[in-house]
Specification:
The complex is a heterodimer. Chain A is an all-alpha fold. Chain A is built from 2 helices and no strands. Chain A is elongated, with a radius of gyration of 20 Å. In chain B, helix 8 (about 155-205) crosses helix 15 (about 365-395). Chain B is globular. Chain B has a 6-stranded antiparallel sheet. Chain B is built from 22 helices and 6 strands. Classes of the chains: A mainly alpha, B alpha+beta. Chains A and B meet through helix 1 and helix 2 of A and helix 5, helix 8, helix 11, helix 13 and helix 15 of B.
Chain lengths: ~100, ~600
């Protein structure tokens, strides 16, 4: 387990600026997407609570479905972001190698 | 309700504590530098760190509070799960990687990375201490609340026991031992919550035999109430008799029953997860309401009344006092709800003890990956809370007077061993979160205040020693407050900590990252204004009037109780206004100096 070695490790965070700028942009786009979902959920609960009582699927109401959906969406977006970041990192490294 | 003391619970708890302390002493021998103490040398594997995030974050409030709230009020507790998890999106997409890049040991490091200002460090250190202590109190109270019925010790023993163990964990190896305790706790919590959920689904739902009778007999059962009365002399009676299990004594009956299943069935047998939820939606469940009456002679009587509630109501928001506002027509009630959901969303990424966990991994990619693991494990746990809460609600084993006990009592309905393990995990839950908070506080004292604000020259070794002394000091304060605040509602203070963290810390963190015009004065003033305004709002709110001052909440000075929707924007506005004012002054000074020179 890597965690058992507690010596200070140098942090190799030097990345091409373009790669990190692009990653930040993706991060913010995903953030806005989630903010819209969460915002819609909270506003529906506050101003149209009766909508939450409808049972659109599997005999389960919208309140439960959307709550579970929001938790699932958070994990899904986190995975998408990690995948995008790794993709950008590997592309940045390839470009770096070609450049030198 | 009188709970059976469990020797097995004491034994399992003892084993957990022995493992925890063993780990701490093992790592203690290997951790000497400040980098090791504050940030585990930056050498924690991202997966371990991710699970430790769960161990750090899932506090007693998450485990006991949310399960209890769902068990008593249904869906409303799940709103906390949704809000707490949503906050991690802010952490992952906005905060994680920059905080890792900018900081070294503490939240103040990141905030001050561009300025080297004592003012920022002082403000950030005070805010770290304030948030951590508000967060510590409910954890310590939770430890005491649990230990009394479970292990049979008085409240203060629980608080002192947890406080002492945590001080030992932190003092031996700082962030290293804290990380592994949190890793252990995070894994066990998620694993055993899953075990409990599988057992709940396997047991299915069953109509309590007392409610199976028809006609007037059923109505009679539904009309049964329970009362707890405490006289001016402190003597307690239950249903009119002295509380006890002996002759001529009475105790409260356990609650949590299904009174009707769909299609008139009496039991369902094993259910799938979605089937479980849809069956509850179509059933009728007996919830309870409490009403307190104070007689002229000072006798306080609480009457618990049954409220058979359709499942479709149970699974909708608005059953609990906290979230009743969503069904109200009053605009301020709706604002109160929006404000709480905003504080939950913004609070997570502003909690100092969460932020410092980004310094324990080696680079930004590891910070990101550990957050993804954290979101996965915390999200999975929060999904399980819905089943645990509804399982407790229908287990027939719940104490009507204490919602915090819902999860352990649910476990007891499956046998003594599971009860012992879940109780021990609940304690480890407290240990894990409290250790994280004490590491964050000791960093604020030793690294930010002593070394950077007061500029006391310290060697690396001395800084660790000061941090350990600070850990003992903060731990002692937490013990004292945990005893003093025994009667305080646990969830109330956690909400308080989230609101203060979001109002004080988030505006500065976000603006530092995204607005070049941010000045050091802007950050310092915004942290102070955010912290003080949110604290003041809470102290002047209806909830505090009712729960703390025992005054009429209608006379409160602020229109609704949750401060976030006002004080978070106020933090941003303050930062922008002060930054604009001080930036033009700085530029003006520069201009006049250069003008004088020419």
């Amino acid at each position: 387990m890597g965690g058992l070695d507690h010596r200070a490790i140098p942090t190799p965070d030097a990345q091409p600026e373009r790669v990190s700028a692009q990653r930040i942009r993706y991060g913010h786009a995903l953030f806005v997407l989630y903010l819209l979902l969460y915002g819609a959920f909270v506003l529906l609960n506050a101003f149209a609570p009766s909508v939450m009582a409808r049972t659109p699927a599997a005999g389960i109401n919208l309140a439960v479905l959307s709550g579970l959906g929001l938790i699932g969406a958070a994990f899904l977006l986190a995975l998408v972001y990690d995948w995008l970041s790794r993709f950008l990192d590997s592309r940045g490294q390839n470009e770096g190698r070609h450049g030198t | 309700m009188i709970h059976e003391r469990s020797l097995l619970a004491v034994v399992v708890f003892g084993i957990f504590v022995a493992i925890t302390l063993g780990l701490s002493f093992y790592f203690g021998a290997r951790t000497r530098s400040s980098q090791g103490y504050f940030a585990a040398g930056g050498g924690i594997h991202w997966f371990v760190n991710g699970v430790a995030f769960a161990g750090d974050y899932l506090s007693a409030a998450s485990f006991l509070g949310i399960c209890g709230m769902i068990a008593f009020y249904g869906y409303d507790g799940f709103l906390y799960s949704i809000g707490y998890l949503a906050g991690w999106i802010v952490a992952l997409f906005v905060i994680a990687e920059p905080v890792k890049r900018l900081g070294r040991y503490t939240f103040a490091d990141a905030l001050d990375s561009r300025f080297n200002s004592r003012g920022i460090k002082l403000a950030a250190a005070i805010s770290t201490l304030a948030v951590s202590i508000f967060y510590l109190i409910p954890q310590m109270v939770g430890a005491g609340v649990l230990i009394t019925p479970l292990l049979g010790f008085p409240h203060w023993v629980g608080v002192v026991l947890v406080g002492t163990i945590v001080i030992l964990i932190v003092v031996t190896a700082g962030m290293v031992s804290t990380t592994y305790v949190q890793f252990l706790k995070g894994s066990l919590l998620v694993l055993f919550s899953l075990v409990l959920t599988v057992l709940i689904l396997h047991r299915g739902l069953k109509v309590d035999p007392r409610y199976q009778a028809g006609g007037s007999q059923r109505e009679r059962v539904l009309a049964e109430t329970q009362t707890v009365s405490v006289g001016p002399d402190g003597q307690k009676t239950v249903n009119g008799k002295p509380q006890g299990r002996g002759e001529g004594q009475a105790d409260l009956s356990p609650i949590g029953h299904v009174s009707r299943l769909p299609g008139g069935a009496t039991e369902t047998g094993p259910l799938g997860p979605l089937e479980f939820l849809s069956t509850i939606e179509q059933s009728e469940i007996v919830l309870w309401t409490a009403k307190t009456v104070i007689d002229d002679d000072g006798r306080v009587t609480t009457v618990y009344t049954q409220r058979p509630t359709p499942g479709s109501e149970v699974l909708r928001p608005g059953n609990s006092p906290t979230f009743r506002g969503v069904r109200s027509e009053k605009f301020t009630d709706k604002l109160n709800f929006l404000s709480l959901m905003l504080a939950l969303f913004c609070g997570t990424a502003s909690l100092p003890h969460i932020l410092i966990r980004y310094y324990t991994v080696k680079d930004q990619a590891s910070a990101r990956k550990s957050t993804v693991v954290g979101i996965g494990s915390i999200g999975f746990f929060y999904v399980l809370t819905l089943f645990l809460g509804l399982g407790a609600m229908t287990s027939g084993a719940i104490d009507v007077t204490n919602s915090n006990m819902a999860a352990p009592l649910l476990a007891r309905s499956f046998g003594e061993l599971l009860f012992s393990i879940i109780s021990a995990i609940a304690f480890t839950t407290v240990l894990g979160t409290v250790s994280g908070l004490i590491v964050a506080s000791s960093g604020a004292v030793a690294h930010d205040l002593v070394a950077n604000v007061f500029r006391v020259p310290l060697t690396d070794h001395q800084q660790v020693r000061v941090a350990k002394l600070a850990a003992v000091g903060v731990g002692a304060i937490a013990i004292v407050l945990g005893i003093l605040f025994e009667k305080m509602n646990v969830n109330f203070l956690v909400g308080w900590a989230f609101s203060v963290a979001a109002s004080a810390n988030l505006p500065s963190l976000v603006m530092l990252l995204f607005w070049k015009g941010t000045t050091r004065q802007g950050i310092t003033v915004a942290v102070i204004v955010g912290m003080l305004s949110s604290l003041a709002w809470i102290l002047l709110s209806g909830d505090t009037y009712r729960d703390i001052y025992k005054l009429d909440p209608a006379t409160a000075l602020v229109p609704f109780s949750q401060p976030g929707i006002v004080t978070i924007p106020l933090g941003f506005l303050t930062l922008v206004a002060v930054s604009l004012a001080t930036r033009s002054r700085v530029q003006g000074n520069v201009a006049s100096v250069s003008g004088g020179g020419g």
